[in-house]
User: Which sequence fits this backbone?
């Protein structure tokens, strides 16, 4: 049964976030708010937790998981980023963008794409997510909280509690989030490719909807 933490959306209580962080450190999976929707997250280095996260979400190892990072310097530790890519990242972070990049050796092979050796990375712009990442001191492995069989992300913590409290170990309730997933941009090739248009404005990166893969 999940522990339920009701926190302030802009000034979250550190005491409660520390408890949630401890659950993640111990191998738990949590539902947390972000600047796009709620997400399922777990400790990057915990193989069993990552497998549980995939089972809950109903995806296989070819589904790109995302690393939630504190800032661009942390992101650059987990992805190979050249100067051109860095300028694009800087223009859109923090914010509701996910970037697909070539993973470094810091990323366990089991969580990167099995054939491409790529990983999704982002720097979220949400006070609760940022505070939790600061407490953990490292990225969280994440996926958008979309219930199996559904197409829309979840943003109501009470509905999340009703549906998932028996399969996750923690739920951090900071109220409703926007109900749009991130905009996904693939930077692993020769030119940026807009994979999915979501909450982030592609124009920030000089991309338009016509460039969607």
Assistant:
């Amino acid at each position: 049964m999940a522990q339920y933490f009701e926190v302030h959306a802009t000034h979250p209580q550190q005491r409660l976030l520390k408890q949630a962080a401890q659950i993640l450190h111990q191998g738990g999976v949590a539902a947390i708010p972000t600047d796009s929707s709620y997400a399922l997250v777990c400790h990057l280095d915990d193989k069993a937790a990552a497998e549980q996260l995939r089972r809950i979400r109903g995806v296989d190892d070819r589904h790109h998981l995302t690393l939630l990072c504190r800032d661009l310097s942390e992101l650059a530790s987990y992805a190979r980023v050249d100067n051109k890519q860095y300028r694009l990242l800087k223009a859109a972070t923090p914010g509701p963008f996910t970037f697909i990049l070539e993973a470094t050796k810091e990323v366990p092979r089991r969580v990167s794409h099995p054939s491409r050796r790529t990983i999704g990375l982002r720097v979220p712009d949400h006070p609760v997510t940022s505070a939790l990442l600061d407490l953990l001191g490292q990225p969280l492995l994440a996926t958008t909280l979309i219930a199996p069989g559904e197409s829309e992300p979840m943003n109501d913590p009470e509905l999340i509690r009703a549906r998932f409290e028996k399969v996750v170990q923690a739920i951090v309730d900071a109220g409703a989030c926007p109900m749009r997933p991130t905009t996904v941009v693939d930077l692993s090739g020769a030119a940026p490719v807009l994979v999915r248009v979501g909450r982030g404005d592609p124009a920030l990166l000089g991309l338009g909807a016509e460039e969607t893969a």
